[in-house]
Amino acid sequence: MFRFIASEDNTHVHVSGINSGKPFRDNIKLDKAGQHVQKHYSSGLYSHIVADKAISVFQFSLTQIGHGDHADPSMITVVPIEQYAFEYTFTTPEYSHGNYSNYFMFIIDSSQTSGLRIDNRSLAGNQVYHKIPETHLVGGYMKISVGTHTVMHNDPTTVFGGILVGKADHESYGFPVGLLLKPINADCLVSQMIEGDKIDNDCDGEIDEEQSDGKDNDGDGQIDEDCICCPFSGPKLPDIFGRR
């Protein structure tokens, strides 16, 4: 179940994706600011949501038994792509009667899947990726163990979204594992860069997407204009720690 909430009058929302192998599209109109529309989509849907004005999107899991059982729904805030990060560390919640079955869901550029790491390990060789039509993105999920985990990309300029969900008897949970707390949907002013400042210095909708390597990493004709970090210019490691 998805809820779309408008921030302005006359907002149009387009949902496109793939549902159990078949193309899916839906168009929604929100006439007034604050109005919401709720849609029941299949759990097999991998989709991309675009609106012509700012909206909030929330995903709700349904109850396990039926309409009379209200013990186990959960609500997930759907994070905008502009607030994706390249690394997340999180801990699975505790269940009151044992352990949840925990799953990590992710969305990433289809050309960057090989760089994903969970707890310093590559994803399983049989990991399934679902292409999302009309985008360069793919989505997937994996079952994870109880405890603390770190999911990251080996290229710090590659960002991805992550959601942690879990289920147990009459209980469930779901939440985004993190996000960049940067302003979006606001006027952007080109600014002086400080490496790793988590600011969209060149106003291209991305944050710290370049590396300080003298190359145009994002293909926009500019070099090192919005960098994730600065090159290490100090003494080499053997000079710091001594030779062994």
UniProtKB/TrEMBL annotation:
Composition skew (Acidic residues), residue ranges: 202-211
Ranges where the IgGFc-binding protein N-terminal domain occurs: 1-159
Location of the region described as Disordered in the Swiss-Prot/TrEMBL record: 200-221
UniProt-listed InterPro entries: IgGFc-bd_N
Pfam families xref list: IgGFc_binding
Identification of the protein by name: IgGFc-binding protein N-terminal domain-containing protein
Organism: Mytilus galloprovincialis
Organism lineage string: Eukaryota, Metazoa, Spiralia, Lophotrochozoa, Mollusca
